[in-house]
Design goal:
Blueprint (H helix, E strand, L loop, with lengths): L4 H42 L12 H11 L2 H9 L5 H6 L5 H4 L6 H25 L14 H22 L6 H21 L15 H6 L2 H28 L3 H18 L7 E5 L2 E4 L4
Antiparallel strand pairs: 1-2
């Protein structure tokens, strides 16, 4: 069906309005998750220090949490990602119903993300805490202390919240990979550099020598791999199930776009996009 110039301009304006709402919703919920997941671990730690106010993370690492380590993934998810292509939405206006009906972002979705972040904080704190409860011995006979445990939890938290955002990216590109893997890498670079600044600078005295302790201990690597896997396992399973068996129009179109993308890697042919009329009733229209 050929659209007039006026109709095309109207659909472009509607698309821009949708993308603005979509971007805002995808910015809000990951930011809530990022902060609840991290700072809830400090709340659980308070039960073990008698609510004395003892810090669990070094102060400058806390300051850099939202500014450096978790800044890019929500931006990549909210500003650069698209659930389906813009051209697809112009051909299937029914896709706008999810935003018109408040299904893209509402109080229920926000509370689900917050509840998920609290679950993640429980796993991050208690799995690491139980593993290091009696201390992890080093080669010199010393055992891990508060800062080793805190930074192990912090590392696992950064990895978990960043990968959680990655699970919700539909279209991966160079910027998406940089935002996800670069954010994780930035924390390791930060530890290696920050552990060397004292006493040249009057900050970070708690971090002196901690880089060699962390990076030279097997239990550290085991925990920062195992803990995020446990925390994100329900999210991963839910994502697979809803993507594979989801019966909504959006999920059906996403599956078809993904199939077309795989076909385009080995062939110039593309599966025709389906026109969705009523539930369970489809017909083909010209491919884009």
């Amino acid at each position: 069906m050929e659209l007039s110039s006026a109709d095309k301009r109207y659909f472009v304006l509607v698309l821009q309005e949708y993308l603005s709402l979509h971007d805002a919703s995808l910015l809000a919920v990951p930011c809530a998750h990022v902060n609840f997941a991290c700072f809830s671990t400090k709340f659980w730690f308070a039960f073990f220090n008698g609510f004395s106010g003892q810090v669990f993370f070094e102060r400058w690492t806390i300051g850099a949490y939202n500014v450096i380590f978790t800044l890019l993934p929500p931006l990549a998810l909210g500003l650069m990602d698209q659930d389906v292509r813009a051209a697809t939405r112009l051909k299937l206006p029914r896709l706008y119903r999810t935003s018109q009906n408040g299904r893209e972002f509402n109080a229920k979705i926000l509370w689900v993300w917050i509840a998920d972040s609290i679950f993640h904080s429980l796993v991050l704190f208690f799995v690491t805490g139980i593993a290091l409860w009696h201390g992890a011995p080093f080669s010199d006979g010393k055992i891990c202390g508060l800062w080793f445990t805190g930074n192990t939890v912090y590392t696992a938290t950064v990895i978990t919240v960043v990968l959680k955002a990655g699970l919700h990216i539909y279209h991966w590109d160079v910027l998406s990979h940089i935002s996800i893997w670069g954010s994780i890498l930035s924390w390791f670079v930060f530890v290696a550099v920050y552990a060397q600044v004292w006493p040249t600078l009057p900050i970070g005295s708690e971090m002196v020598g901690l880089d060699s302790r962390l990076f030279g201990t097997f239990v550290f690597y085991a925990l920062i791999i195992l803990t995020p896997c446990i925390a994100l396992a329900p999210d991963f399973l839910y994502k697979i199930i809803t993507y594979q068996v989801g019966r909504s129009l959006l999920k059906s179109v996403q599956r078809q776009e993904y199939a077309n993308k795989r076909l385009q890697r080995g062939s110039s042919e593309q599966t025709p996009l389906k026109r969705y009329t009523q539930i369970g009733e489809t017909s083909s229209i010209e491919s884009m």
